[in-house]
Amino acid sequence: MSLSLSLEITTPVAPPRALVLHYPFGHPLGEVGNLAQQEQIFWDALGLLEEPEGPVLVESPYLWRRTLFPLKQT
Q1: How many domains is the chain built from?
Q2: Is 69 inside a domain boundary?
Q3: Kindly report the CA angle at 29 between 27 and 32, in degrees rounded to 5?
Q4: In Å, what is the CA distance from 55 to each residue of 20, 33, 69, 73?
Q5: Which of 41, 47, 56, 71 could pair with 51 in a Cys bridge, judged by C-beta atoms 3.0 to 4.6 Å apart?
Q6: Contact by Cβ (8 Å): 20, 57
């Protein structure tokens, strides 16, 4: 079971089960402190284990809502 943040990298690897999230690198379970979001992604990923045959590659329907701004130069 894999959580991935890059469809382009995960597709050729073809892991047995993978959930691809369209989140920034470093945030495979979503926003820090958002426990409900993190739990949902965790259970979605575990649900892939119910698939009888692999490889299974699922793109998450969730979108990253927070905009990341670059640091101001001083």
Answers
A1: 1
A2: no
A3: 65
A4: 13, 31, 36, 45
A5: 56
A6: yes
**Domain containing residue 55:** 2-62
Q: Which residue shows structure tokens 């101001």?
A: 72
pLDDT in tens, the chain (74 residues): 899 999 999 999 999 999 999 898 989 998 888 899 999 999 999 999 998 888 999 999 888 876 554 444 44
Sequence letter at residue 16: P
> Given this model, what pLDDT does residue 71 score?
44
First CA to last CA across the chain, in angstroms?
Answer: 43
> 57 is written with which tokens?
């590659």
Residue 55, preceding peptide bond in cis (omega within 30° of 0): yes
Q: CA–CA separation, 56 vs 47, rounded Å?
A: 11
